[in-house]
C-alpha cells in the first residue's frame, strides 16, 4: 500500500510540473525552465501566458542564450528533481557530485524546443550537456569524463552553488 501511495504522489507532483508557464526558477542553485501546458479544460483567462509566444524571440536564440548565460546547461527529459529517463537521471547524478550550479530545461514539454536544441548542437539524443558554452555530449560522455577526472578539470573554475 505504501509503495503504491508514494508512486501516486510522485506521479502527481511530476504531473504538476507540466502546467507551469515558461519561467526560470531556482532550487538549491539549480535553475529549471518550464513551459506552458495547452490544457483544453482550462479557460483562456486562467491559462498562464507563455512569454515566448508573445516575445518574437526564436527558440534557436533562446537555446543560444541558455548556453551562453549558464555555466552548465542541461537539456533533459524531465527536471533535475524528477528526471523522466535513466540517461537524464544519470547526467544529473554525475553533475550533482560537483556541487556546481546546474540549469535545465525539460525538452518533453515542448517538441519545438527539442528540435531547436538538436539543430543547435547537431546531436540527435538527450540529455545534452553544455559546459561554459561548449557542447560536451550526453550522460555516457559525462560519466566517462567523471571517471577519467576530465570533468573535474572542466568544472574547477565554476563557482560552487551556495
UniProtKB/TrEMBL annotation:
InterPro entries (UniProt xref): Glutaredoxin, GRX_PICOT-like, Monothiol_GRX-rel, Thioredoxin-like_sf
Task: Tell me the Pfam families matching this sequence.
Answer: Glutaredoxin
Keyword Metal-binding assigned: yes
Name the CDD domains on file: GRX_PICOT_like
One MF annotation (Gene Ontology) recorded for this entry: 2 iron, 2 sulfur cluster binding
* Gene Ontology cellular component terms for the protein in this record: mitochondrial matrix
Tell me the keywords, alphabetical order.
2Fe-2S, Iron, Iron-sulfur, Metal-binding, Redox-active center
| Domain Glutaredoxin, residue spans | 72-136
Q: Which PROSITE patterns match?
A: GLUTAREDOXIN_2 (PS51354)
| Protein family per UniProt | Belongs to the glutaredoxin family. CGFS subfamily.
Xref: PANTHER family: GLUTAREDOXIN FAMILY MEMBER, GLUTAREDOXIN-RELATED PROTEIN 5, MITOCHONDRIAL
Write down what this protein is called.
Glutaredoxin domain-containing protein
What organism is this sequence from? Canavalia gladiata (Sword bean)
